[in-house]
């Protein structure tokens, strides 16, 4: 279902992937610095989750300014929260690369406003912990303040997320967290000798099983 979400004097393009049965929870997904909501990994994950009962809302927000992206993400969260069509008790925020930074930033901001009951967790796909070859400056400021469960799915050969550094940040985080390493994958989740579909199947299954562990399944 295509929708447009008002954002300031503009609109954000978004697509709902709606499960057949009444969804138990929702996931809001967004893309990295390049691309849009039709980035193949997001399309694949949304379809996978929707087929298993999870409502997915993915949206496009162009712009390389992290504050702008965060504001857009927050607008989408409010939109879903107030939606009459899909009454959800909670939602997980998910993003790829820069999108996951924006998601982390939104959760940090909402926690300061004491309005984080609606947010049930964070999924970071290829979290860009540092710029390539610039490991001294970590983008961990939001992660350390988050309290809700966090799942990281990163490639062990990601040039923007060195393994030991992410594990170091995770050890300092107060939130319940899990890291799933995709062996030999780079920042784009490409692995020599494996098809994209094969890698996506691994990522999608990880995300879904983690969601299931963290959803308060009502009446199930």
From TrEMBL:
Coiled coil: none annotated. It comes from the Eukaryota. InterPro entries: AB_hydrolase_fold, KANL3/Tex30_Abhydrolase, NSL3/Tex30. Residues 27-209 form the KANL3/Tex30 alpha/beta hydrolase-like domain. This is TEX30 protein. It comes from Pampusana beccarii.
